[in-house]
Automatic annotation (TrEMBL), chain A:
Keyword Membrane appears in the UniProt entry: yes
Keywords associated with the record: Germination, Lipoprotein, Membrane, Palmitate, Signal
Domain Spore germination GerAC-like C-terminal: 213-382
Mode of membrane association: Lipid-anchor
InterPro entries, sorted: GerAC_N, Spore_GerAC-like, Spore_GerAC-like_C, Spore_GerAC_C_sf
Family: Belongs to the GerABKC lipoprotein family.
Residues covered by the Spore germination protein N-terminal domain: 24-204
UniProt cross-references to PROSITE patterns, sorted A to Z: PROKAR_LIPOPROTEIN
Protein name according to UniProt: Ger(X)C family spore germination protein
TrEMBL record, chain B:
Family as reported in the entry's similarity comment: Belongs to the amino acid-polyamine-organocation (APC) superfamily. Spore germination protein (SGP) (TC 2.A.3.9) family.
Gene3D superfamilies from the UniProt entry: Amino acid/polyamine transporter I (1.20.1740.10)
Gene designation: gerLB
Keyword tags: Germination, Membrane, Transmembrane, Transmembrane helix, Transport
Entries under Pfam families matching the protein: Spore_permease
Its membrane topology: Multi-pass membrane protein
Keyword Transport: yes
Transmembrane segment boundaries: 45-67, 117-139, 151-172, 192-211, 223-245, 276-298, 310-327, 339-358
Organism of origin: Lentibacillus halophilus
Record's keyword annotation contains Cytoplasm: no
Compartment(s): Membrane
Name assigned to this protein: Spore germination protein GerLB
From TrEMBL, chain C:
Topology in membrane: Multi-pass membrane protein
Localization (cell): Cell membrane; Membrane
Superkingdom: Bacteria
Protein's UniProt name: Spore germination protein GerLA
Family of this protein: Belongs to the GerABKA family.
Stored InterPro entries: Spore_Ger, UPF0353/GerABKA_families
Record's keyword terms, sorted: Membrane, Transmembrane, Transmembrane helix
Residue intervals passing through the bilayer: 313-335, 409-427, 439-459
């Protein structure tokens, strides 16, 4: 066999390959881009162990190319729902319903109804989103009060897709004290694996609008939602964990309200422990702030006034934080603050002994002694000392 | 047309330095963080990786040192000068088999991973076949050409790793690295073995040192090359543990690819970085594969001098393909990988030990 | 050895040169006979001028023969005929015709390049290459006066390689002028010109030029060897020579560069390269070339280094787009839409809604149309060429989108690709990139990104096995010569580039002494 023949053999093989190729070719316009998924329990409560999946598909012609101008009122999205026992089966079924095969990599949001989150379905339904290679770990997860699919119908305002609207709200507003950082599926996967308690941000539908506030509290050992964290507790939580980057603290000075705007929040937790019964955690929160608004007319350029203002703010913050800790220890009995994580990392031996009964059973977490301290620095009083006399 | 000075089949020690990490870095990095974290706590696996790295660098140096003793002499000829001829041919054959098996394994893994991350319906047999054909095309060319390929592709590999690290640094949480030093030696052992196996790729040094123009510096350069690989591995391991945490990293099948999946490049241009990462990674795996296939062919050529290189390639390739298709599932593939690493490791250790002893003994006899 | 050598040409043995029409090789002593043989040989073309005359008192019969249009008539009249007739009046001419011939050669004519010819072959070649021939009756020799004087193009700015800044002169079709253009750039006595004659029938002159003491001697030897194997009837353009002596005729990459610019040739010579000039074409071949040379333009060196470097980066980007963009479009749209930013993906999907073809077919249609337009534009006169550009680019593109044959994004892709390929300075490199692009597109249509990367790897394999006159095509990337990287993608300041390219293995390594800087 000479070289020429080798060459022909190679070419022949290549030709065979190419002629039989194109297995995976699906043109872009034939794909059904799924941007959001909502998971509900079916209305019919008899259908236990079943779940209702609503996918928000993009209708590209509804978005339209910019040159084509307004697309004549055609909606840019289509919500398709189906019920079934496994999500994959539902996806398949949906493919038959919508003429386009669902394409998941563009998914941005998974919304779960709070009812579903209270059952053991929660962790099982999320399995697909974690396991499937098409899914990104950056998909955001949120729980919705009431009907999860409902938020897919809200008025999207300047975004074309409701999901995009929700996503940008989540991206832009987590910095505030009352909201928690959006949760990524990847992060959730870590919680599920570690069996740590965690928070899932909450979306509420209000008429044709939505608000992004508060969070659902999930227990680590069974991954069920045990409670809802309100705005106040969320503020405390954010101060405790130092996750917020802005937000306000309102205090009263001489009966007139003063608003301090937070510029930077950092917190650190120290855990000391000799034995499982005497776990002590101390959380120190440092805040940098500036005076944003005051109804009082006294001068602010006064060392003493500023100091008292700081003291009052610190007290307010500590109160917020303590409320949250109390709720976590007594009401939800879930270690959402990461005390256990610290223990695991820095007191490995102690952790081994308390691990099993950390925030369940014996519940060492509830018995732990957590104290807080805060320190506020008022950096500036704004561009003017007084706006009125 | 051997008219110009370097238009021949010789390489420089610089090329060995680049080729060594380029051969080492292959499919094992994709799952390395899992190998490290599943038996250990926190970032303790990285310690095992570091120790394994040092061990492997030393081993690389030794292997190269051995080969350098016989400049411009091919493996079979210096092997038969040290040990009896039948044993020398046996060892050469063992290396040939090692090379062929590794080729089959890498081909299989690339098909599997491509099927998982790039395709859904394309049969993996086809992916493997196209890959193998390209590998064969490369090996049919000149040996020096293979080293030039290493030089051409290696910058891409380093670049993609750096990009990966840069863009995932936002996810890096130092807390995830703790606790430290809580893993017992018993649990460190599998991590150590796993990391050592992931560095397998110094065997070609035994063969290719004979092609080096001025081989004096080869041990040093090979060791430097290996330390590049070790460094890159450490960076990837630390990044994945830092980004995912020990538990998640130990749970993902290919944590490195998942890390790439987490990359969000500002401006959203590449929404799915892992595809780009994986596509570039094909080059890396390709580099490993060509070197092992060529080593096999090289070894066999030294034994069967009458058969031409092309004939050898064409005789072997169907078997490589079939061997790659044998494993039924991921576990089988993993088992094959472990077996090959074990096999290669044993043979290399054996050769190094045997040859050094034989050399000492022969010298002693001379004196 | 191996598949790579498939692409290598087997050494060509020079086949025996068949004798051309061999008339009586030696000249006769009889003038009439000589003239008759010449006339028979050329079959009395009407541009053959035979001017018989007699000289002196002895009435020596002589004849001047030349081809009208090939020689400078003025010179023949003034410096041959006039002189001879004048001296014949003035002084006594030798009676012996042999002595007369010698006297004419040495004293009587005022022509620089005079030689004696004995065979008909010699004479006919000289005659057909612009010489006038003087026969003297009774001598079996003739004088050949080199009086080339045909019409030629003036030295103009090269059309294919126009620069904004840089010398404006380009090679022309005349070999001698071209040699002078190079000499004017390099006044080194070591500049060598070696002449070959190629073409069995055309007998064209081919000049190889290099600088002794800079170039690696083996390159000269190798080029020499390869040129000697050339066996063609005619080489109308240096492309024939290129194809004959290149290392691999199956490769899409040009292994010899061609240029119209003397400054570029001069720079290349100083880098230790060799240039091959063929009579009758302004395109001079430069060899060896490597991958990096494809994207370099002389202008990089004429502008300041930062700008030169920036332009090179730009060109690398352009080359990437020219090769990959359509295939990436196919791969992303048909296989991996996840790589496209979500919003763009949606709008692509929206615009493709009505398009009946898969992305691959769409891309092939448009790429084919584009190539067609370019080809048509190149053939047409300049003024109409523009019309084609407008009709093709604007009207067809827009109409195709309106008609729903292609999507608007495809038009952008094709347009950007075309523009990017124009940014590559060398035309032959552009063509090869255009060719490779189709390979990528094909692979992308069958295997998506996986196919693209496999083809990319294959091209790399081909490149590392490719050589240009024995120099690895992939150098100085690999084998790496880090010092040469100063002038590869980067264009470092001239003060930093102290050495000639290491991959050329020049005899004289340094281009200047470091101490002086």
């Amino acid at each position: 066999m000479n070289r020429q023949t080798y060459c022909y053999v190679l070419m022949g093989l290549l030709m065979i390959l190419l002629l039989t190729g194109c297995w995976d070719r699906v043109e872009i316009e034939d794909r059904g881009f799924v941007v959001g998924a909502a998971l509900d329990l079916p209305e019919d409560s008899a259908q236990s162990k079943k779940v209702k999946l609503t996918n928000q598909f993009v209708v590209p012609s509804g978005i339209g190319a910019p040159s084509q101008g307004s697309s004549g009122g055609q909606p840019a999205h289509a919500n398709v729902a189906a019920t079934g026992k496994s999500l994959l089966a539902i996806e398949r079924e949906m493919g038959a319903m919508t003429s386009r095969s669902p394409y998941l990599p563009n998914m941005k949001l998974i919304s779960l109804s709070s009812e579903l989150a209270k059952t053991d379905m929660f962790e099982s339904v999320l399995d697909l989103f974690i396991r499937d290679h098409e899914m990104r770990r950056g998909v955001k997860v949120a729980i919705t009060e009431g009907n999860a699919a409902g938020i897919f119908n809200i008025d999207a305002k300047n975004a074309k897709l409701p999901v995009n609207h929700i996503e940008s709200v989540m991206n832009n507003h987590f910095k505030y004290l009352g909201n928690i950082r959006p949760l990524r599926v990847g992060g959730l996967h870590e919680y599920l694996l570690k069996k740590e308690s965690f928070l899932v941000p909450k979306i509420t539908k209000q008429g044709n609008d939505m608000t992004y506030q508060g969070a659902g509290v999930f227990h680590g050992y069974n991954n069920r939602m045990t409670g809802v964290m309100n705005v106040k507790a969320t503020k405390g939580y954010n101060l405790l964990t130092g996750q917020a980057h802005s937000g306000t603290i309102k205090i009263k000075m001489d009966d007139s309200p003063v608003t301090l705007e937070l510029m930077e929040v950092t917190s650190s937790m120290k855990v000391r422990s000799q034995a499982q019964s005497a776990i002590k955690a101390s959380i120190q929160t440092d805040v940098e702030s500036r005076v944003a608004e005051t109804f009082a007319s006294q001068s602010l350029q006064n060392e003493k006034r500023l100091q008292t203002m700081g003291k009052k703010a610190e007290k307010k913050m500590e109160k917020l934080m303590k409320t949250t800790i109390k709720k976590a220890q007594n009401e939800w009995k879930a270690d959402i603050l990461g005390v256990g994580r610290k223990l695991h990392k820095y007191h490995y031996d102690v952790w081994q002994t308390v691990k099993k009964d950390w925030d369940r059973g014996q519940n060492y977490f509830s018995e732990a002694d957590i104290d807080v301290a805060s320190d506020i620095t008022i950096k500036t009083t704004g561009v003017t000392d007084q706006s009125k006399k | 047309m051997k008219t110009f000075e370097y238009a021949d089949d010789q390489i420089s020690d610089k090329e060995i330095m680049i080729a060594t990490p380029s051969v080492v870095i292959g499919v094992s990095v994709l799952s390395l963080p899992r190998t490290l974290t599943s038996p250990t706590n926190g970032m303790d696996g990285v310690i095992a990786l570091g120790v394994a790295g040092l061990f492997v660098i030393a081993l690389t140096w030794l292997v190269a040192k051995l080969a350098v003793q016989f400049p411009h002499e091919n493996f079979y000829s210096y092997a038969s000068s040290l040990i009896p001829k039948p044993a020398a041919s046996m060892f050469t054959m063992l290396f040939a088999v090692y090379g062929l098996l590794t080729t089959a394994y890498e081909t299989r893994v690339i098909a599997d991973v491509a099927e998982q991350y790039l395709f859904t319906r394309t049969p993996f047999g086809v992916i493997a076949l196209t890959f193998l054909l390209v590998v064969i095309y490369a090996v049919s060319g000149s040996r020096a050409g293979l080293f030039r390929l290493h030089m051409m592709f290696f910058p891409f590999i380093v670049l993609i790793i750096l990009t990966l690290v840069l863009f995932t640094s936002g996810l890096f949480d130092p807390d995830n690295l703790f606790p430290v030093l809580t893993t017992g030696a018993g649990n460190q052992w599998p991590a150590f073995i796993g990391s050592t196996f992931s560095f397998m790729g110094f065997a070609p040094l035994l063969f290719y040192t004979s092609l080096v123009k001025k081989p004096r510096n080869v041990p040093k350069k090979a060791a430097i090359g290996m330390s590049i690989a070790v460094t890159l591995y450490m960076v990837i391991a630390v990044m994945s543990i830092g980004a995912f945490g020990n538990l998640t990293a130990g749970n993902l099948q290919y944590p490195t690819v998942e890390l790439a999946k987490d990359v969000e490049i500002p401006g959203g241009f590449f929404e799915r970085f892992e595809t780009v990462f994986f596509v570039i990674w094909i080059m890396t795996i390709f580099n490993t594969t060509i070197m092992f296939l060529d080593m096999a062919v090289f070894a066999m050529n030294q034994l069967f001098t009458k058969i031409s290189k092309m004939q050898l390639i064409f005789i072997c390739s169907p078997f490589i393909y079939m061997a790659g298709m044998i494993p039924k599932n991921n576990e089988d593939v993993d088992a094959l990988g472990t077996f090959i690493s074990m096999y290669g490791f044993t043979v290399v250790i054996l050769i190094v030990a045997l040859f050094f002893i034989a050399r000492k003994w022969k010298r002693g006899k001379k004196q | 050895m191996g598949l790579g050598s498939l692409f290598k040409r087997k050494d060509k043995q020079p086949s025996k040169q068949e004798p051309t029409i061999e008339f009586d090789a030696e000249l006769k002593a009889n003038l009439d006979q000589n003239l008759e043989t010449l006339e028979i040989m050329l079959e009395k073309p009407n541009d053959l001028v035979i001017r018989p005359f007699s000289l002196g008192s002895q009435d020596h019969r002589c004849a001047v023969v030349y081809i009208d249009g090939l020689v400078d008539k003025q010179e023949i009249n003034n410096n041959i005929l006039k002189n001879l007739q004048y001296y014949a009046e003035e002084q006594e001419l030798p009676t012996n015709s042999h002595a007369l011939l010698d006297e004419i050669e040495s004293d009587l004519v005022s022509i620089g390049d005079v030689s004696k010819g004995k065979t008909l072959d010699e004479l006919s070649f000289a005659l057909l290459y612009g010489s006038a021939i003087l026969y003297v009756d009774g001598v079996d020799q003739a004088l050949m006066f080199d009086l080339k004087g045909w019409e030629m193009r003036a030295i103009e700015e090269p059309v294919t390689e126009s620069l904004i800044r840089g010398p404006r002169e380009g090679f022309i079709e005349n070999l001698r002028t071209n040699m002078i253009l190079i000499r004017r750039h390099i006044r080194d006595p070591n500049l060598r010109f070696k002449t070959y004659q190629i073409g069995r029938r055309s007998k064209k002159n081919l000049v190889v030029t290099y600088i002794e003491g800079v170039i690696h001697p083996d390159i000269v030897k190798e080029v020499n060897r390869r040129l000697k194997t050339i066996d063609l009837d005619d080489a109308p353009e240096s492309g024939y020579v290129e194809e004959w002596i290149e290392d691999s005729f199956l490769s899409p990459f040009p292994q010899l560069a061609n240029t119209e610019r003397p400054d570029r040739v001069a720079t290349s010579l100083l880098q230790g390269k060799i240039a091959i000039m063929l009579d009758g074409t302004p395109f001079v071949l430069v060899a060896p070339v490597t991958l990096g040379n494809m994207l370099q333009s002389p202008e990089d060196y004429y502008e300041r280094w930062l700008i030169g470097t920036f332009l090179r980066f730009l060109r690398y980007g352009g080359a990437f787009l020219a090769m990959f963009l359509p295939s990436l479009y196919i791969a992303l749209v048909s296989y991996n839409p996840g790589l496209i930013p979500a919003k763009l993906a949606f709008s692509i999907a929206a615009t493709r809604e009505g398009v009946p073809f898969p992305a691959a077919i769409e891309a092939f249609i448009m790429a084919f149309t584009m190539e067609l337009l370019r080809e048509a534009g190149a053939r047409l006169p300049k003024t109409i060429g523009q019309t084609i550009g407008i009709v093709g680019g604007l009207v067809i593109g827009d109409a195709a989108v309106q008609a729903g044959i292609v999507s608007p994004i495809m038009v952008i892709v094709v347009a950007v690709t075309a523009i990017a390929s124009f940014a590559i300075p060398s035309y032959s490199a552009t063509i090869s990139f255009r060719l490779i692009r189709f390979g990528f597109m094909l692979a992308a249509s069958f295997l998506g990104l996986y196919g693209v990367i496999l083809v990319y790897i294959m091209i790399n394999i081909h490149i590392v096995n490719l050589k240009s006159i024995g120099v690895p095509y992939s150098s100085p990337f690999a084998p790496s010569f880090f010092h040469d990287w100063k002038d590869l993608v980067l264009r470092t300041p001239v003060t930093m580039r102290t050495r000639r390219p290491a991959y050329m293995q020049t005899v004289d390594k340094k281009s200047r002494n470091k101490e002086k800087s």
